[in-house]
Structures are given as C-alpha cells and as structure tokens.
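Chapter review: from sequence to fold.
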Amino acid sequence: MEKRQNGLLPVLCVVFSLGLCSAASCVAAELKIAKVKDLKLNGKQCYLPETHSFRLGIAALICLCVAQIIGNLVVVLLCFLFHAKTPMVSTFLLIISWISFGISVILLGSATSMSGRQPYGKGWLEGECYLVKDGVFTGSAILVLLTMASTLASAITTITTTTISQVNQQHQLDPKF
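The token string follows.
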C-alpha cells in the first residue's frame, strides 16, 4: 500500500510542475503581448507581427492539457484499480477543475490566437486586427493555478480515501492487523 502511494508522488509532482510551467508561460506571455505601437495601418488594412506571446501561449496550453489529462487519469485509475468510490469532495474538486480548465483553455486559446501574425487584409477576425487586452494572460495563469490545485486536491483526496478504505477492509479481514 505504501509503495503505491510513493509511486504516485512522482506523477503528482509532474502534474504540479506542468501546471507551474503553464502558469509561468502565461505570465511571460503577458509581458510580451503586442502593443498599439506594433500595429501598422495601410489605409483601412492593418498588420500586426507575431509576438512571443503566441509561442508562450501554445506552450502554456500544451502544459495545461497534459497536466489535466495526467491528473484526471490518476483519479480515474485509482477508482477503477481499487474499486473505490470516488468521494464527494473529490468529485466536486474534479468538477471545479474541469470548469476552470475549460474557461482557461478558451481564454488562453483566444489570446494566443490573437498573438499570432495578422497580415494586411487578413487580420484575426473578419480582416480586422485585434490586440490582446492587458491582464488576459494573467487571468489565464490564475485559472491554470486553480485548475491544477483542484486537480491535485482531487487526486490526493482520492488517494487518502482509497488508502483508508483499504486499511478498513484489511482490518475487517484480519482483526489482528
């Protein structure tokens, strides 16, 4: 039982590290967003160069998605492998995790897309150039941290509940334990 818990620690550390990497990429992207001075106008057409925010946003999205998948796999595998019921708190935390994940992916994906190159006449949407507002990537970073915190808390709650359940079952089978 102890070995199983110790085996999950590196996996949870990877999830935590990916979450931090994603949040750090969001903050770095915020510092590199395009400014009004970068916007070039040619009559009614506009041009915005690709910023570093584009690549940083993609890195943040990838890290976030991988962390979310791994974190949820831990919870699901624990429940299936040990035939444990998922505790209500763990389920609630997973729901919060998925809601904040969905919002952060939409926000981060939109901001990242706007940070890409917007050539003359093509723009981001209907041929117009759009700038990412200040604070969008920072807001995404906060949502990423909420996502990772709730995912990890759900996994830890499930691990704890599974361990307690196994100890109780072992105690019922072997009263000397």
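Two observations follow directly from the output. Residues 1-170 form one domain. The first helix runs from residue 2 to 31.
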